[in-house]
Automatic annotation (TrEMBL), chains A, B, C, D:
<dbReference type="GO" id="GO:0004055">
    <property type="term" value="F:argininosuccinate synthase activity"/>
</dbReference>
<feature type="domain" description="Arginosuccinate synthase-like N-terminal">
    <location>
        <begin position="8"/>
        <end position="171"/>
    </location>
</feature>
<feature type="binding site">
    <location>
        <begin position="12"/>
        <end position="20"/>
    </location>
    <ligand>
        <name>ATP</name>
    </ligand>
</feature>
<feature type="binding site">
    <location>
        <position position="122"/>
    </location>
    <ligand>
        <name>ATP</name>
    </ligand>
</feature>
<feature type="binding site">
    <location>
        <position position="128"/>
    </location>
    <ligand>
        <name>L-citrulline</name>
    </ligand>
</feature>
<dbReference type="InterPro" id="IPR014729">
    <property type="entry name" value="Rossmann-like_a/b/a_fold"/>
</dbReference>
<feature type="domain" description="Arginosuccinate synthase C-terminal">
    <location>
        <begin position="182"/>
        <end position="399"/>
    </location>
</feature>
<dbReference type="InterPro" id="IPR048268">
    <property type="entry name" value="Arginosuc_syn_C"/>
</dbReference>
<dbReference type="GO" id="GO:0000050">
    <property type="term" value="P:urea cycle"/>
</dbReference>
<dbReference type="Pfam" id="PF00764">
    <property type="entry name" value="Arginosuc_synth"/>
</dbReference>
<feature type="binding site">
    <location>
        <position position="183"/>
    </location>
    <ligand>
        <name>L-citrulline</name>
    </ligand>
</feature>
<dbReference type="GO" id="GO:0000053">
    <property type="term" value="P:argininosuccinate metabolic process"/>
</dbReference>
<feature type="binding site">
    <location>
        <position position="97"/>
    </location>
    <ligand>
        <name>L-citrulline</name>
    </ligand>
</feature>
<feature type="binding site">
    <location>
        <position position="129"/>
    </location>
    <ligand>
        <name>L-aspartate</name>
    </ligand>
</feature>
<dbReference type="InterPro" id="IPR018223">
    <property type="entry name" value="Arginosuc_synth_CS"/>
</dbReference>
<keyword id="KW-0963">Cytoplasm</keyword>
<dbReference type="GO" id="GO:0005524">
    <property type="term" value="F:ATP binding"/>
</dbReference>
Length: 410, 410, 410, 410
């Protein structure tokens, strides 16, 4: 694969040791110009050190791209996904999956701008992230060359990586010399941890793995009550205070973190075919999905709600598998977005030691009709006798079946 | 509808005031023989008083049927449903829905035995339960006559009901004279509450409505750790102790109750067309669904798991709508049951103030393969280079699309 | 139900004997003002006689509404449905179902205009059409009163109907005195026949029942070759000649009719619960669905195409059941419409004695890439070796399963 | 990939030139023992010449396996698939896809028997068949080595192949020297043709490509009327004569062939990512699917039928993509098979110049109830007034929506 001739490559660069090694390896292996792209998706790291590191490694000033994508990430990726109540395999809120398409998109935009013919990422050859990055690359720039160093090089042990770093004067932080006890990915939506100490699914996740939340046990004894305002399916305010998408998620994260909310220990099925065990912390997202379901419960019609529920597993799978930029995801998104027209109102929640408890919902567009439920006759009259006909016709085919059975001596 | 001529009717009889009034009303309105059926589904009430009450109201000894259905209920209804991870509208564990088919089935069996031509139930004309009872009746005995007093009579206020009771010497407990502030249904799986004080979905559920669980705030400060053993998708032991289905659910209920687990405040879409607000307490079921998903996570193949996830919303809807005895529910059940062949093993859980936290899972049939996940080569070799081809072919159609877009100047 | 007080009712009026009887019955039973609505949906009948008949029956000039809906019908109902390749129960092109919502919509619009509080239709109490009419009425005017004479009156035999007509000086054509050997519904999309001579599904449909097509046996020995042009999923031209929606369908009908195309003898499942046997003639529609699938085959991506295929049965069921004006149909329609953006091009067809044979398709937006299929390398290179990785990773979970089986001695 | 060490390989061997070259290439490249497996799936070729050819090419007598799989193929693969009414992309009857799993299974059985560590097939690197063969291999023997010569060797032109054949004394039929104008695959279910002259989807399929059917134009002027008997979803007799599965399909093929039935010209989406154009002849299968739908129409309940229809596209996709031996296909098959319990009866068909016309169906288990459809009251009474309640409750949510719209001034 090193026979691909590459002139200029845009690397997804974090500034950390691993992507610094990749940077150097690209230079030495492909002899090509390297352009770095460092994005702030809310992973909680400073971006300037990445610039310094890139310069140090010989990247030209004009080849260093750094961008704060937090608002775009939440507005155009996280929120659209939450409109679908997407949960992969029933529980996982897709925090890693949803970040990849945006990074890929930006790399491709930069590649177009600087005339690069290749892109590179630091995802390993066994995971889902390589798929997510690369499907997005190809979907946006079909003729791009993709370099996936972890699938190509022979730096297959920590020792070899460190040797390579030393050889090429890459600074190595002390705590990076040994193998990490687990690997971490973070963005504004979540932190995921996997590998090593987490590998046996029989063993409890050690306390030191958690970084984003306190445990339910450590959370305050007093519940926190908040009201989230929604407009057309997206959260727009907390306790009446309007918030931008990223600020909203930050606030929810803070609330979730403090109340021990959003931890998940999971064995999941990777797209590349094996099962893996991960630990996820999604404090704000966990609050958000509960609140979103609650506001939908009074504003969405049953037909729309059940259609969404039936399509959700496939929608979540598409995002998990890396098909964000695919016609089928876009078609489903269009349907989901259109369903949210009246998903506007407020949800009151109690946050308490890991629990997200809905305690009230209101909406100017509520379909909940007290008159229909009680005995009082509402504007839409409900006649009890209608139920008889309703049941009789719903039962008709079942009765016909039963008669066949009877006829057969069943 | 009172022109239906009825000779003998089997009434689902709880022994309470309302079904006692129905009993009398059937006798006086239809002039027919009434057979009572009282079932123990774990609602937590004595059955003998129902017998005494029936005798008092003039029911013949041989026309009183009382049965403890707890084991059958859990084994043949609750557990099969949990194999599917069924949740209606994303969250509701279907505790009321699942009890109706069994009661109906028993009523029909008794009707066949005693030669009754009709059955009756005490469900109201606005709810789902009438549908569930009656679809089951018709599916099992297509020529049965169904009497639904709440849809037929004119006892439409509490005052009229009480008057009728007094007129017919039906004993009235003091606290039953006034209108209850909410109505309750209970069985071994759950307790549901709805109506009156719960009618405004903006208002928090008052504390006094909860009867089945303590609140997370009142739960112990120390977590409870348990291990649930599964065999072919069903829970069979707690901490190594084998338990019958009903005992299992009772134990889980006790554990859930003590740890503040399983409360749900929900606005749902009824089959009869309106939204209603309910409060559910499903302590054991809430533990069970989490545990079941966890044991599936290591024993079910992705293909089977995702198929189940996609079919679940419709399966849950069928049960909610009362189609337990329908070909489509039975076909889906067959598929679900078959998928559980290897869903055997143990799940360790931490229960803490409303949280059900998975902390470990093991199985003799685990598909989790540590060798595949780590760099070590397993019995099934994973070659990193395979990922490239995998991605390339998955990307092929997306690249073709991108080229079309490009050609069009997109 | 005759206790509903009604002042003015808009009747879907064909001018035929049955709806004339209904007209009179409404006047005499409800004592209300009757407004007639007669629509041309391409059923092949003159509309003016309906006006004369209405006048004769005492309807005021300003209460007679007659409208040619052919273009609207095809453009806004038929074509959108064909974008979905909708077939109910695998084969039925929904010709009756799709006409009802439009008629209902117009009735409601007239009701709003003339200040009517009720609407009425002539559908029987055993069929689907009553459901389709009424669900549309309620969805568009929730407080409307619906009168369904066939469910209310006691004119339950032909004799009684004729008596009523005679009593009220309704002119009776000679051939309408006796019971028709089958009933017919027609519009621009199809003609359906059912009842009486068609009732035994074991018996072949008698020749005289067909009215819209010649049989394959009578069709010409020479095939007809045509080219249909599509734009964004809709047919717009035949052999280069641009045609309006209704003209397009008329032309296709003519072509189908002459070539013995579009007959269907079917036992179907009605929404109201029983099976019924019908005979449908859909000459143009049968050509159209084949052509539409063909143009999609080169312009739609697999992801979009398969998503559409999976959603189609439910979409067709919604239309069949009368849920055209429902959020779920509208959401699905939005998805389907969006998928058609590039479904533009030409399809060449051979029509021959009942057969519709695709013999060629071209599109400026074709995704068919000859270079990819042959050995020549295209703009998007296809590397044979990629297939190995693709297969290996797709096989990974199956191999893991096989190893488990082996381990268990399977 | 030639670094895989292989001792003994089981080759799917047709006896033709291409697989003979593969045979020799395996011997010379891998230096391994070659075992040939030649199966009769009804492709219409003698098997004995394959034996002679194998002997000639140096295969030991005991390493030559020849088997007539026709009955097994139809009974265990074709019929189960037709129970689902499986059509890929709406029209393709999966004739090629369904043959691969059986061949693979037999190769693996032979590999186990003779102690081979590898299997090989002659499918190209761009098609679906390689995927289907190999997924089946891996699912049945996870540690097997798979050799796919067309992905590995450098015999990438006809000239090189012929040279290799000459070099190794492989007999070459005269008509095999040049490149074939299209490639063909055949078995008892169908013949498929693709490539070269078929590559431009704008061009009509030339007449000489068809080999399995006469054209509708050449078919007799007299229709053929037949009655197919079904038992539990499978055809068992024609005109009263019991037939084994393979004989059944042969008879249907003959009938289809003579009446110009079963041609399909299609652009389809391959699993490996590109579109391809193929021409299929499935004479018997085309008759069978129509007949099967017809017998289901009177014996299957609506709930079961619609569930099947909704699952069908995914089931067909699984088979097309090669996942026959996967848990999800097996689970769906279980559901489908169970649904067929009462799919027993007779269907009368008219075959005429490409048309398959249902003219009658009967069943001892028919759910079609004439009494329900007509005005006469059946054993299960249908009360017209029930329809009102049925509609009213189905309309309730739509009315609530309409009121919201109204409130908003919509």
């Amino acid at each position: 694969m090193t026979d691909k001739r590459v002139k200029k490559v845009v690397l997804a660069y974090s500034g950390g040791l691993d992507t610094s090694i990749i940077l150097k390896w690209l230079q030495t292996t492909y002899g090509c110009e390297v352009v770095t792209f460092t994005a702030d998706l809310g992973q909680g790291e400073e971006l300037e050190p990445a610039r310094q590191k890139a310069l140090l490694l010989g990247i030209k000033e004009e080849n260093i791209f750094i961008e704060d994508l937090r608002e775009e990430f939440v507005r155009d990726y996280v929120f659209p996904m939450f409109r679908a109540n997407a949960e992969y395999e029933g529980v996982y809120l897709l925090g890693t999956s949803i970040a990849r398409p945006l990074i890929s998109k930006k790399q491709i935009e930069i590649a177009e701008k600087v005339g690069a013919d290749a892109v590179a990422h630091g995802a390993t050859g066994k995971g889902n992230d390589q798929v997510r990055f690369e499907l997005a690359y190809y979907a946006l720039k079909p003729d791009v060359t993709v370099i996936a160093p972890w699938r190509e090089w022979d730096l297959l042990s920590r020792t070899k990586l460190i040797e390579f770093a030393e050889q090429h004067q890459i600074p190595i932080a002390k705590d990076k010399r040994g193998e990490a006890p687990f690997s971490v990915d973070a963005n504004l939506l979540h932190t995921s941890s996997e590998g090593k100490v987490l590998e046996d699914p029989a063993d409890e996740v050690p306390d030191y793995v958690y970084s984003r939340t306190i445990g339910p046990e450590e959370a305050p004894d007093e519940p926190t009550v908040i009201t989230i305002g929604f407009e057309e399916g997206d959260p727009v305010s907390i306790d009446g205070e309007k918030l931008s998408p990223a600020s909203m998620l930050e606030h929810l994260n803070q609330l979730g973190r403090e109340n021990g909310i959003g931890r998940l220990d999971l064995v999941e099925n990777r797209f590349v075919g094996m099962k893996s065990r991960g630990m996820y912390e999604t404090p704000g997202g966990t609050i958000l999905i509960t609140a979103h379901r609650a506001i939908e419960s009074i504003t969405l019609d049953r037909g729309a709600a059940h259609l969404k529920d039936e399509l959700m597993p496939r929608y979540a799978e598409l995002i998990y598998n890396g098909f964000w930029f695919s016609p089928e995801r876009e078609l489903l998104q269009g349907l989901i977005d259109k369903s949210q027209e009246f998903v506007t109102g407020e949800v009151r929640l109690k946050l308490y030691k890991g629990n997200v408890i809905v305690i009230g919902r209101t909406s100017p567009f509520s379909l909940y009709d007290q008159d229909l439920v009680t005995f009082e006759e509402g504007a839409v009259a409900y006649d009890h006798r209608d139920a008889e006909g309703f049941i009789k016709l719903n039962a008709l085919r079942l009765r016909t079946l039963a008669q066949r059975k009877k006829r057969l001596g069943g």
